[in-house]
């Protein structure tokens, strides 16, 4: 190239072809109503199997696709984890369980992973202990936002206008003598949650158990779920519940990192 020549070199046609195939794979995953394996994608997209595999691994490295525990793929956080809850929740359930199970066994307490659904929070994933009897409701149970540690976490960083809409819809019904039943008291409670980075349920949903919860965040530092040690029956003070806070934070960070941290290609 002569000095002063600003003409850009022609793009490598093989590079363009690979990009084209990658976009075809992403589009196939976006349109699919279920996770797809490498063989399924190769056949669906009419792309060589080994090429499909290499493209998927590259896309996974940069957050464009996500591989589930069953080795099948869904679109990743850079496409629609923020705007489409179905894929986000599927990935959360897959990633969270082994991490939750490890910490449940370590601390001897059940863990719940909760997400917001309208004016309730729902237990999305769970790890139990080997106790014959515990006080943890099953997966799929809806808990009141105002009387659960997870609910407080899920509301704690909402924009004021959005929060007002939720608070206006909540029935601040007393479940126990400790339940917060007044809107302004609950607003003060949420301010403490934002300040402290954790939330407590001190016998507010059940008189026989307590709970401590922390946020699970996405790649933009937004709260997408709440993680808690739940059904704790042998502790009645905040000071003693805080023993579990380091483990909760570590588990939450591990879940977020597994889904949302972009790994640089080597």
Please sum up the structure shown.
With 266 residues, the protein is α+β, with helices and mostly antiparallel strands.
| Protein structure class | alpha+beta
How large is the count of helical segments?
10
Annotation, overall tally of beta strands? 8
Order of H and E elements: HHHEEHHEEEHHHEEEHH
Proportion of residues in helical segments: 40-55%
Q: Please mark out the parts with pLDDT under 50 across 5 or more consecutive residues, or reply none.
A: 1-11, 262-266
Strand content: 15-25%
Shape: elongated
- Read across the widest sheet, the strand sequence of neighbours is 5-4-3-8-7-6
Question: Quick one: biggest sheet?
Answer: 6 strands, antiparallel
* Separation of the first and last Cα atoms: 32 Å
Q: Could you report the average pLDDT, rounded to the nearest whole number? A: 85
Radius of gyration: 23 Å
Structural features, described:
The structure is a single chain. The protein is α+β, with helices and mostly antiparallel strands. It has 10 helices and 8 strands. The strands form 2 sheets. It has a 6-stranded antiparallel beta sheet with strand order 5-4-3-8-7-6, with helices on both faces. It has a two-stranded antiparallel ribbon with strand order 1-2. The protein is elongated, with a radius of gyration of 23 Å.
Give the helix/strand layout:
Layout: H1 13-31, H2 38-45, H3 49-61, E1 65-67, E2 73-75, H4 77-81, H5 85-107, E3 110-117, E4 120-127, E5 142-144, H6 149-155, H7 160-169, H8 183-196, E6 199-202, E7 210-217, E8 223-232, H9 238-241, H10 245-260
């Amino acid at each position: 190239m002569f000095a002063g020549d600003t003409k850009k070199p022609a793009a490598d046609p093989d590079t363009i072809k690979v990009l084209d195939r990658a976009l075809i794979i992403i589009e196939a995953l976006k349109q699919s109503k279920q996770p797809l394996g490498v063989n399924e994608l190769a056949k669906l997209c009419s792309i060589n199997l080994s090429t499909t595999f290499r493209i998927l691994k590259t896309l996974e490295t940069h957050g464009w696709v996500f591989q589930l525990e069953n080795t099948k793929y869904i679109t990743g956080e850079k496409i629609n984890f923020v705007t489409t809850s179905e894929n986000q929740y599927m990935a959360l359930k897959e990633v969270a369980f082994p991490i939750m199970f490890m910490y449940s066994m370590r601390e001897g307490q059940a863990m719940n992973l909760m997400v917001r659904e309208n004016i309730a929070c729902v237990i999305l994933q769970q790890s139990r202990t080997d106790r014959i009897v515990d006080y943890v409701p099953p997966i799929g149970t809806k808990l009141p936002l105002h009387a659960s540690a997870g609910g407080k976490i899920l509301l704690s960083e909402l924009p004021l206008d959005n929060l007002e809409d939720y608070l206006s819809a909540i029935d601040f019904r007393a479940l126990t003598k400790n339940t917060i039943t007044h809107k302004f008291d609950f607003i003060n409670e949420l301010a403490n949650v934002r300040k402290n980075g954790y939330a407590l349920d001190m016998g507010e949903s059940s008189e026989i158990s307590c709970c401590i919860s922390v946020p699970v965040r996405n790649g933009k530092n937004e709260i997408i779920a709440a993680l808690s040690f739940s059904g704790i029956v042998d502790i009645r003070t905040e000071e003693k519940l805080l023993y579990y806070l380091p483990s909760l934070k570590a588990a939450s960070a591990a879940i977020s990192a597994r889904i949302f941290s972009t790994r640089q290609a080597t």
